[in-house]
From TrEMBL:
Recorded name of the encoding gene: lpxB_1
Record HAMAP family: LpxB
Catalytic function, reaction form: a lipid X + a UDP-2-N,3-O-bis[(3R)-3-hydroxyacyl]-alpha-D-glucosamine = a lipid A disaccharide + UDP + H(+)
Organism: mine drainage metagenome
Pfam annotation, one family: LpxB
The keyword Membrane is annotated on this UniProt entry: no
GO CC terms of this entry: membrane
Enzyme Commission numbers on file: 2.4.1.182
Top-tier EC class: transferase
Keywords on record: Glycosyltransferase, Lipid A biosynthesis, Lipid biosynthesis, Lipid metabolism, Transferase
MF-aspect GO terms: lipid-A-disaccharide synthase activity; phospholipid binding
One GO BP: lipid A biosynthetic process
Entry keyword annotation includes Lipid metabolism: yes
Protein name as annotated: lipid-A-disaccharide synthase
Length: 377
């Protein structure tokens, strides 16, 4: 039996991991996967030693709060992997957690694959030397990334993004709206405040106040808020309660794809959801709030003028970004309403996002599995 250690840190990594496990098992039936996995990876047979939620922490202050628990967990995981000899290790995203593990395992002679290049092109370019010591191979999701690794002498394979394989070139808006029982004349705004509790805590009140302003301008507005846990749902429901107003906000358990596909415009916290929105060819306003200290630290390290993946991939501001102090209910409401009414801009957005979709559609899981299996021969 071949044993592969695998660690994913959040929902987007769980999705990547599930497709990868499926593709690897189709080629080799004798592989077992153990580490930290989410529900999708476990559905494909991965054994999770700890809940994936333990790693789902974002922002410097938030990480500091959970630091000792994370360090202890990482040491426990390393001991397990070294005691129960691995043939290979795959770290899916979660770079601050996984690079330490990868370096320790690589020093013990275990091949290490890192799936999802960290954003060295956006934040911390100096990290590439740390990556070189930790990984045997990088699987890159975006087409501009391989050159950075080749220059540093790190083996790399561009594999594209699995969402580009899954999602059709043309979204089926009518079917999505029918499934959600939305009236044909409604102005549908999908609101995605993030997947982590800390993100929803930062954005819930902001999004509810934004909805209030949009609804005052357009009484046909309907707001869809997909959330994946009971805790995040409770946070958002509390923000609605504090608004002291009956707003047409529907909280959905999951169904983020349906909400985005049905939407006329999306207000979304920066992250993987922005990429899905782009692949669905949707106009969006990208926003993000974090603690003031985290923002000051991050701002100093930023190398590009944009943080949203759709803008980074296009190399320009295709959709607006309202971050931190610019992220106010007034600005979000005004920008979203202006965006959805500008037909020329909507046409341009769709064209740019179609180009991105074509460039990312690479049969990702198959390519990633092929690169990994080369290390198991």
């Amino acid at each position: 039996m071949v044993r592969i250690g695998i660690v994913a840190g959040e929902a987007s990594g769980d999705l990547l991991g599930s497709h990868l496990i499926q593709a690897l098992k189709q080629k080799r039936a004798d592989i077992e996967f153990v580490g930290i996995a989410g529900p999708k990876m476990m559905g494909e047979g991965a054994h999770s030693l700890f809940p994936i939620e333990r790693l789902s922490v974002r922002g410097y202050l938030e990480v500091i709060k959970h630091l000792f628990g994370l360090l202890r967990l990482r040491r426990q995981l390393l001991r397990h992997f070294l005691n129960d000899r691995l043939d290979l290790f795959i770290g899916i995203d979660a770079p601050d957690f996984n690079f330490w593990l990868e370096k320790k395992l690589k020093n013990k002679g275990i091949k290490t694959i890192h799936y999802v290049s960290p954003s060295i092109w956006a934040w911390r370019k100096g990290r590439i030397n740390k990556i070189k010591k930790a990984v045997s191979h990088v699987l890159a999701l975006f087409p501009f990334e391989p050159a950075l690794y080749q220059e540093a002498g790190i083996p790399v394979t561009y594999v594209g993004h699995p969402l580009a394989d899954i999602l059709p070139m043309e979204p089926d808006v009518a079917t999505a709206r029918e499934g959600l029982k939305i009236k044909p004349y409604a102005l549908v705004i999908a609101m995605l405040p993030g997947s982590r509790q800390s993100e929803v805590q930062q954005h819930a009140d902001l999004f509810v106040k934004t909805a209030k302003l949009i609804y005052a301008e357009n009484p046909n507005a309907l707001f869809l808020v997909p959330l994946i846990t009971r805790e995040t749902r409770q946070i958002f429901e509390l923000a609605i309660f504090h608004a002291l107003e009956d707003l047409p906000i529907q909280i959905l358990f999951g169904h983020a794809h349906d909400a985005m596909e049905a939407a006329d415009v999306i207000i979304v916290a920066s992250g993987t959801a922005t990429l899905e929105a782009a692949l669905l060819k949707k106009p969006m306003v990208i926003t993000y709030r974090m603690s003031k200290l985290s923002w000051q630290l991050l701002k100093r390290m930023r190398l590009q003028p944009y943080v949203g993946l759709p803008n980074i991939l296009a190399g320009k501001f295709v959709v607006p970004e309202l971050l931190q102090d610019d992220s106010t209910p007034e600005k979000l409401a005004e920008t979203a309403l202006k965006l959805v009414s500008d037909l020329d801009q909507l046409t341009e957005i769709k064209a740019e996002f179609t180009k991105i979709h074509h460039s990312l559609r690479q049969n990702t899981a198959e390519k990633a599995a092929t690169a990994i299996l080369a290390y198991l021969k």
